[in-house]
Structures are given as structure tokens and as C-alpha cells.
Amino acid sequence: MDEKFRIHTINENTDDKERGDVPGWVLVVLMTTGLVTAIWTIAAPRLSTILRNSLDAMNGIR
User: Fold this and answer.
1) Which pLDDT value is given to residue 43?
2) Nearest alpha-carbon partner for 30 in 19, 38, 41
3) What is the pLDDT of residues 2-60, one digit of tens each?
4) Contacts of 50 (CB under 8 A, 6+ apart)
5) Cα–Cα distance between 29 and 24 in angstroms, integer?
6) What pLDDT was estimated at residue 46?
7) Cα–Cα distance for residue pair 27/32, rounded to 1 Å
8) b vs e for 24-33, b when ≥16 Cβ sit within 10 Å of the residue's Cβ?
9) E-strand spans in 5-57?
């Protein structure tokens, strides 16, 4: 009898309401990946130029 009560109590404590929305999280991950890719595509040439200029300036100090 005690074993049945314990299993029943464990099952009551596991609510699926708090489990989360898996398709929602997949959508969030896909949208974030898309945004990062779009921003990286636009910003990559400028970032490369900034880095190159900074390194050239550091080489000029020596």
C-alpha cells in the first residue's frame, strides 16, 4: 500500500504544464540563427576593415 501511495505522489508532482513549449523554442533558435547570420553578413566586411586598420596601426607603432 505504501508503494502505491509513493508512486501516486511522485506522479502528481510532475506537471507537464511547466515542461515548456518545444516548437516555440525551436522557432526562437531558428530566428536567432537567422538574425545572427544576416547581421554577420552585413557587418563582416566592416569588421574586417576595422580589424585590419587596427593591426596596421599597431604595426606602425613598433
Assistant:
1) 97
2) 38
3) 666 566 566 565 566 656 788 889 999 999 999 999 999 999 999 999 999 999 999 87
4) none
5) 9
6) 96
7) 8
8) eeeeeeeeee
9) none
CA atoms in the 13 A half-sphere facing the CB of 22: 2
Dig out the grid coordinates for 17 from the structure: 504544464
- The one-letter amino acid code at 21 reads D
| Cell representation of residue 35 | 538574425
Return the C-alpha cell found at 2: 505504501
Grid cell locating 20: 515548456
CA dihedral of residues 46, 48, 49, 55 (deg, nearest 10): 150
- pLDDT at site 38: 97
